[in-house]
Amino acid sequence: MTPDELAERLEAAAKRVGPAVQRGVTHTGTLGIAKIRGNASGRPGPNVITGAYRNSWKSVDRRWVNSALCTIGTELPYGRRLEFGFTGTDSLGRSYAQPPFAHVQPALPFIEQTLKMQMKFAVMEVLQ
């Protein structure tokens, strides 16, 4: 392979890096939400009453030229209380003695492994 051929291959690969990484991050976010929702579907996580909390989990993707970011979360104010528990009086004067019902923390190893695999797939795709 000549230096010019190598340079052409590297340029072509560089153009594919961003989209491949973005696809992997987006897919990881989708699977992460599914895992958290699954964990929030009953014990040891929180019980489902209406499904509103479980369905409130969303991912937001941000994309740049050669990178991507996915933020997973809920905007419901009681999300932290369900995850970590709460004992005391809230700002409205209500008293709680709620134990934690972890559903996000147990999903983190799965999300981490999924992201690692997605990045490996991205590298393999780009180097083909």
Structure write-up:
The protein has helices at 3-39, 52-55, 79-84, 108-127, and strands at 58-63, 68-73, 86-89, 95-98. It has a two-stranded antiparallel ribbon with strand order 1-2. It has a two-stranded antiparallel ribbon with strand order 3-4. It has 128 residues and is α+β, with helices and mostly antiparallel strands. It has one domain (17-127). Helices cover 52% and strands 16% of the residues. It is elongated. Strand 3 (86-89) and strand 4 (95-98) form a beta hairpin. The model has no long low-confidence stretch (mean pLDDT 92).
SSE order in H/E notation? HHEEHEEH
Number of strands: 4
- Beta-strand portion reads 15-25%
Count of domain modules: 1
Dominant shape: elongated
Low-confidence stretches: none
Give the averaged pLDDT, no decimals.
92
What gyration radius follows from the Cα positions, in whole Å? 20 Å
What structural keywords apply?
128 residues, alpha+beta, two-stranded antiparallel ribbon, 4 helices, 4 strands, plasmid, HK97 gp10 family phage protein
Summarize this, please?
This protein is of the alpha+beta class and 128 residues long. It contains 4 helices and 4 strands.
Mind sketching the topology for me?
Blueprint: H1 3-39, H2 52-55, E1 58-63, E2 68-73, H3 79-84, E3 86-89, E4 95-98, H4 108-127
Helix pairs in contact: 1-4
Protein name: HK97 gp10 family phage protein
Keywords: Plasmid
